[in-house]
Amino acid sequence: MSPRVVFPNRMLPYLLLAPQLAITLVFFYWPASQALYQSVLREDPFGLASRYVGLDNFRRVLADPNYINSIEVTAIFSVATAALAMSTALLLAVMADKVIRGRGIYRTLMIWPYAVAPAIAGMLWLFMFNPTMGTFAYMLRATGYNWDPLLNGPQAMTLVIAAAAWKQISYNFLFFVAGLQAIPKTLIEAAAIDGAGETKRFWTIVFPLLAPTTFFLLVVNTVYAFFDTFGIIHAVTGGGPGKSTETLVYKVYNDGFVNLLFGSSAAQSVILMVIVIAMTAVQFRYVEKKVHYG
After folding, report:
1. b/e per residue, 77-98, with b = 16+ CB within 10 A?
2. pLDDT digit string, tens, across residues 217-244
3. Torsion angle of alpha carbons 195, 200, 203, 205, nearest 10°?
4. Does a structural domain hold residue 48?
5. Model's pTM, two decimal places?
6. What is the tens place of the pLDDT at every residue in 26-63?
7. Is 50 contained in some domain?
8. Which of 22, 93, 222, 291 is 20 to 30 Å from 33 by CA-CA measure?
């Protein structure tokens, strides 16, 4: 049993916790409480008058076909982004774990893209795949493929998924590399001596032992796809064409800041918060059961 830590002053633990508690209160609980409060009000665009409408904002939102479309778009976008980012990062981490010379340089280069801001990442991919001057767009047209994400909804969705996944690969890569380093090499060597091939060793030994890391990244990537990809979508497509890339978080912005529908926007933010909390709870309730903490 580790020795109990005794602080010289009874107030010191609270002082150490105070900055984090203040940040949590100011940037999470206060905005969340304001969203709950405004979701039951109807305000004019100038904020000069408001009246209580109860759950009317929620009824209007859930009956809006555009909001149902945003739910479908978000489901496709979040699943595809998380799957692409995690699978690619796992592949790169396994490859990096085999590198002997220059391993540190290789890993550092892989981590760098995470430092790029979401809006910058979106603009980078937009320039590369811009239908008029993008390098990769030119290559696609040279093969006879009619590439135009500014007018084609599925192509626009593919572009934002690729940009969002590219931005998150470095984060996932970092944790997968750490997870691979924690796996005892003796287990893998013993399996190799017993005649297990590389693929079989990965799926029967390596991947099950990475289950805690994979579960953690699943939760993180889900939250990332729902919230942190706003800058990418705003820079690349602006929710278009024809609302084909308008996710839930982007619709909250569009209705609240562009159309000045404050009550509807607040109700949408509350629904989004409930959806993310429910998904996280389901992941911890059912997915974590299959996770082995060895």
Report:
1. bbebbbebbbebbbebbbebbe
2. 988 898 899 888 899 999 998 888 888 9
3. 0
4. no
5. 0.85
6. 988 898 888 888 888 888 777 677 888 888 989 999 99
7. no
8. 222
